[in-house]
Amino acid sequence: MNRDATGSALLEQLPPPLPADQIITLNQPKADLHTTRSYEWNDWTFDVPPGVFTPGWTSRMIHERLLDGRIETRGLGYAAMGAGLGVEAVAAGLRGAREIHALDVHPQSVAATARHYRRLVGERAGTSFLPAVSDVFDALPENARLDVVTFNPPAVSQTVSDDPDVVRNVCVGAPLLAKFFAQIAEKDLLAPAGEIYVIASNTADLRALVQHALDHGLSPRIAHLHDWQDGVLTFLFRITHETPRTGGPR
Fold it and tell me: Percent of the chain beyond pLDDT 90?
């Protein structure tokens, strides 16, 4: 697979979604979603309130890259879309991001993120932590400009449960990405040299996801591909402006 391909060349080499029955089997929710749980990563312990999802291996691909700088946020304006438990915000805070917008449509997830950030990062000179309950980017200030955005979207292409908390976290599908990329373009959120990292597997409609980015003048490429050896292929896409842009902050 050509990691440098973009546009139609990238679309052509992306796999279609797995069969529906396989997608549903692979994405069955755990029975403990509505209980209080805990999550450990990098020697940190996070309390997981009812309705807040516990990160899995796919999320950890982003967490690790934020913490070690492969997705660099030091000194930059960063948005953790779908902040969830707050691991991304904590990693970016400890890395030294300039601004951290921790955004989630779920109020309990935003509250959990804020608690974990205060405990594990706290006040840091040069870093502003800005949690907000937000439907995609609706809560962002009008003058916001982002250098880095990460998103592990609930892009599974089949409905795997009628529980609204499961749907919100697992299987909203590609239409959410259409709104995500549309707002980035319409609000001019991405800085000239900005980067968006979106992670999704072939349990989602990858071609539709990438097409939504292309439709809004963005250029996706494959930053990482992981084969789980069970038919699932997980792609981390790095998405930038289609052509280099000039101009300073607004």
Answer: 82
What angle (nearest 5°) sits at the alpha carbon of residue 188, between those of residues 155 and 208? Answer: 25
Reported pTM: 0.94
Query: Distance (Å, rounded) from C-alpha 157 to C-alpha 180?
Result: 16
Domain ranges across the chain: 7-137+144-241
Residue 174 near residue 209 (C-beta atoms within 8 A):
yes
Question: What's the CATH architecture for 7-137+144-241?
Answer: 3-Layer(aba) Sandwich (3.40)
Tell me the H-state helices in the chain: 7-13, 20-26, 57-68, 87-95, 107-120, 164-170, 174-186, 206-215
pLDDT of residue 28: 86
Dump pLDDT digits (tens) for 6-30.
Answer: 999 999 999 999 999 999 999 888 8
